[in-house]
């Protein structure tokens, strides 16, 4: 065993490499503050678990980039508020399902545009007040009632054909008007005269057309 007691200050200077190996446990107790200054890199390797307990605040400042890799599950629990401030873009990618639950209100605010896109269906909300709902089949189902209010309500199914969604619309075939020739006019006149000769309803005779 080794015991060292220092009643005053202690200064240790090593001009070259310093290596210390302990085969069993090490316990270090500081009754006051501790300051560690590393001029270059620092590496910490643990073969087992790690537990850190902080009685008060914890602050971490990284002047460059930071990367965290977790090969198993990760859990984070915050008893009160949590704030995230990103100066640039924020990208979240999830391979499985995504679930967001709130016991109170949920607010999503965007200064420009909000898009919700799933396959061939989606909703787009723009800052000018325009809302676009598109899809191959759209159903509005209200258990009690459905109410639509607007200064002008327009229903124009042909406008959906310009989108990429599948909207089947059969074009209408407009047939040209038949031309009236002299032969056609003579045939119509002859048929009218024949019907007048066959009809004897107003002459008291036997009508060959309506009998």
TrEMBL record:
Q: What SUPFAM superfamilies does this protein map onto?
A: Phage fibre proteins
Protein name per the record: Type VI secretion system tip protein VgrG
């Amino acid at each position: 065993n080794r015991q060292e007691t220092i009643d005053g200050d202690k200064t240790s200077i090593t001009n070259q490499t310093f290596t210390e190996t302990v085969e069993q446990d090490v316990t270090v107790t500081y009754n006051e503050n501790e300051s560690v200054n590393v001029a270059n890199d620092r590496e910490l390797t643990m073969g087992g678990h790690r537990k850190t307990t902080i009685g008060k605040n914890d602050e971490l400042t990284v002047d460059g980039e930071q990367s965290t890799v977790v090969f198993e599950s990760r859990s984070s629990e915050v008893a009160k508020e949590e704030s995230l401030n990103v100066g640039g873009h924020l990208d979240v990618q999830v391979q499985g399902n995504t679930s967001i639950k709130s016991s109170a209100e949920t607010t999503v605010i965007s200064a420009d545009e909000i898009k919700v896109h799933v396959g061939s269906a989606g909703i787009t909300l723009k800052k000018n007040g325009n809302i676009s709902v598109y899809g191959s089949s759209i159903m509005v189902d209200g258990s009690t009632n459905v109410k639509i209010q607007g200064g002008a309500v327009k229903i124009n199914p042909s406008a959906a054909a310009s989108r990429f969604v599948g909207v089947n619309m059969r074009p209408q075939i407009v047939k040209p008007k038949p031309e009236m020739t002299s032969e056609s006019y003579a045939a119509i006149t002859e048929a009218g005269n024949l019907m007048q000769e066959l009809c004897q309803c107003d002459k008291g005779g036997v009508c060959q057309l309506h009998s």
